[in-house]
Amino acid sequence: MKKEQIYILGIESSCDDTSAAVLQGTSILSNVIAGQRVHAEYGGVVPELASRAHQQNIIPVVDVALKKAAIRKEQLSAVAYTNGPGLLGSLLVGSSFAKAFAFGLGIPLLEIDHLQAHVLSIFADLPHVSTPKPSFPYLCLTVSGGHTLLLKVNDSFDMETLGGTIDDAAGEAFDKAAKILGLPYPGGPEIDRLAQEGNPHRFSFAVARLPGLKYSFSGLKTSFLYFIRDKIKENPSFIKQNLADLAASIQHAIVMSLAVKVKEILQKYPDMDIALSGGVSANQGLRQTMQQLATQYHRKLFLPALSLTTDNAAMIALCGYLKYQKQDFSTIQSSPYASTRANTRMLMPEDIDKEATSKNS
User: N or C: which end of the chain has fewer CB within 10 A?
Assistant: First the structure.
């Protein structure tokens, strides 16, 4: 059977990675990512520098993506781009380019929610590889530097928020802990690498126990900071002498915090499989723990390919393909949004109640 000739160009610029990808249906033909090293010396993303770097990177990144996909721009069926959430300056660079590019080619425009794209990334196929896909509805733990959400995915664009963080995200906790330990930015992957060599039970850190399916990581970050500060007073070489064990212990605390709520959700929804998404889904400790939970509760676990865990345009193009099939096109009047609150389907349940109350008052 001849493969469907629908080519979607995806553009992702929500934070500090400029990415462009081309998909034929659900198959990834190219996925090009240009990082921004300038932020490393600041220990975090500087919004103004990020938007400037996007302006420099976006044209060459799109050009390389088209060349790697071995297609001409005239063959594209539509252009999909990240419309939010993210840094507004960065989003404006990607959305402006996407709108101009689609308008110039006379092809449809598809605006994509960044979080929904992460959730649906497991439906993309790597070159010459077709992996098993979950059936709707399924449960998804989305974990990144900016978000920690427990979702019930009813359909491609029908995602119900069951729980999430009330303050900081799990990915932020990883990065903050890495910064305290003096590790290079981005710190999450460094914590994961060191944790594989350390003892996760060497040190114990306080974990918030909130009711329902709510997370909190601000207290954990603070307790880790004070613990390290006090130990350094006693022994200036404390971090160096215990680095691997510290990394393993803080990772264990974060992963166990996530696992407690995942257990609750698996018990509440006994017939649904589960998936991971977001940048922290690349963490080996989290993957192993989630696999253990899936086995314990007799569920299937669906994991995105490691290349699709970080911000990338392939997941944007995949969402674009699904929207293209529904003929759900956007216009050049659409404006980027910085917060998840602009998308009510991804709000915490109590936030949805508050919105409804304010609108009716």
Answer: N
